[in-house]
Amino acid sequence: MITLGVGLRLRIGKLGIHNLPHGYYVYVGSALGGLASRLRRHLRSEKRLHWHIDYLLRQAAVAQIWYAIGPDKLECKWNVILRNFPGATPSIPGFGASDCRCSSHLTHFQVTPPLELFKHSLEQNNLPQVYQLNELNSRSTDLDCTIPRIVGQQTDVLAHP
Ligand SMILES: [Zn+2]
């Protein structure tokens, strides 16, 4: 989840220039090559702009990270659930959704998205549960120790069901 304190006019790579109203944005994605390294990349300010999300995170702050660990890509299913929440508005057509049929993997909310409701919906749809990464500090160095520890625990759980 990303917060924007003020509205922005931003170029998102080949998707062009878009007006982003202030508020909360939920971005869904998968990191089949490794969650910890992907999250570290998202939180690092110095990087080559490659994904659509890179353009947004140059200007906006990551407020919360929720994750699930497993073999399947769940981003599109999560997206459908999020879109049904009150106040959800798809943001920037095509954002993060080059390889699927979703209109966008970025959803805007004017008020804090109901992530407890999201967890409940996962349960109802028999989807794996998500967990919130430990409280985020603005310093990404803190996360360097937090993420591998959490990912390590989950991997262990998966290995010994
Ligand atoms: Zn999708």
Q: Which sequence of SSEs, written as H and E, runs from N to C?
A: EEEEHHEEHEEHEH
Strand content: 15-25%
Which range best describes the helical content: under 10%, 10-25%, 25-40%, 40-55%, 55-70% or over 70%? 25-40%
Total number of helical segments?
A: 5
| Poorly predicted runs | 137-142, 148-161
- Which structural class should the secondary elements be placed in? alpha+beta
The total domain count is: 1
Mean of pLDDT: 83
Kindly report the spatial arrangement of strands forming the biggest sheet. Answer: 5-1-4-8-7
Overall geometry comes to: globular
Radius of gyration: 15 Å
How many β-strands, per DSSP?
A: 9
Measured between the Cα atoms of the first and last residue, the distance is 30 Å
The main β sheet shows up as: 5 strands, antiparallel
What's a concise summary of this model?
It contains five helices and nine strands.
Layout of SSEs?
Elements: E1 2-4, E2 8-11, E3 17-20, E4 23-27, H1 35-43, H2 52-57, E5 61-62, E6 66-67, H3 75-83, E7 89-90, E8 106-109, H4 115-124, E9 131-132, H5 140-159
Antiparallel strand pairs: 1-4, 1-5, 2-3, 4-8, 6-9, 7-8
Helix pairs in contact: 1-5
The site of zinc ion (ZN) has 7 residues, from helix 3.
